Amino acid sequence: MAEEGQDDAVVLEAVDDALGRSMDSVVANLRVRLSGMGTIVGVAPFLGLFGTVTGLIAAFRGIATTGGGGLAEVSGGISEALVTTVIGLFVAMPALWAYNFFTNRIEAMSLGLENNAARIVGRVVRRALKAHRAP
What we know:
Number of domains: 1
Structural class: mainly alpha
Strand content: under 5%
Number of helices: 2
Order of helices and strands: HH
Radius of gyration: 30 Å
Helix content: over 70%
């Protein structure tokens, strides 16, 4: 009887391990697909900042070459700076929202998979106990 209990424990552990590996594989596959979106979220504001800096450099260069600070000399560079800032934010903000949305969905899916795995293991245990109690 002790051997049967040990065999059941081995089977139960194997089922639990297989379910765990399957869940880990599914969740890892989903998270890998999100890494590109995370990169976009991180890089877009920096690209906007880069454009801002280059636009301001162009504005100051315009001031330096003309020797004055009139609107015509600086407006092109300032416009470039503002446009790139807006584009960087325009890309980053929806990407951040989508990244957070999908990250939360993956976490919810992971929790659901864990709950289903626990139910499956529970059913296996109940069936094994019924089989041992049967004459």
